[in-house]
Amino acid sequence: MNLNSTLFVQFGVFFILALFTMKFVWPPLMNALDERAKKIADGLAAADRGRAEMQAAEKRVQAELAGARDEGQKRIIDAEKRAQLIIEEAKNTASAEAARIVAAAQADAENQVTKAREELRDQVATLAVKGAEQILKREINASAHADLLTQLKTEL
């Protein structure tokens, strides 16, 4: 066998191997590469969608937090207003109660003053009668002179 025939055999084997590879090895390998590229592209697209969804979710969370903060502030303001109203009502009630107590105390004081005046009048009338007794040196009958004593009490 000479060199040309060996080359020809090697060329034939190489050609058969190339045909076999192109027919049986290359299509599944290309399909696998295409599927892998498609999976990578799908994964990248899913990652982009996930990133976009995450950003949208973060925006929703921020909006919810802001809404919750606003709601909390409103509730605090409402509670403060309610507390002020309760304080004002308590002040008004206390003022009314104090005015009522003062009025009752004034009325009681006036009653006591009137009672003291009446007692003083009675005592003055009794002293006047005793003084008159001593001046006249005789006893004055209180029941007989009741009209006179009543008139004396009213004058005092």
Structure notes:
It is built from two helices and no strands. The chain has helices at 3-136, 146-155. It is rod-shaped.
Strand-helix topology:
Elements: H1 3-136, H2 146-155
Helix pairs in contact: 1-2
Which terms summarize this structure?
single chain, 0% strand, mainly alpha, rod-shaped, 2 helices, 156 residues, 92% helix
Secondary-structure element pattern, one letter each: HH
Helix content: over 70%
Mean pLDDT figure: 86
**Rg of Cα set:** 60 Å
Uncertain regions spanning at least 5 consecutive residues: none
Strand content: under 5%
Instruction: Profile the largest sheet.
Output: none
Number of H/I helices? 2
Task: Sum this structure up briefly.
By secondary structure, the protein is mostly helical. The protein is built from two helices and no strands. It starts with a helix and ends with a helix.
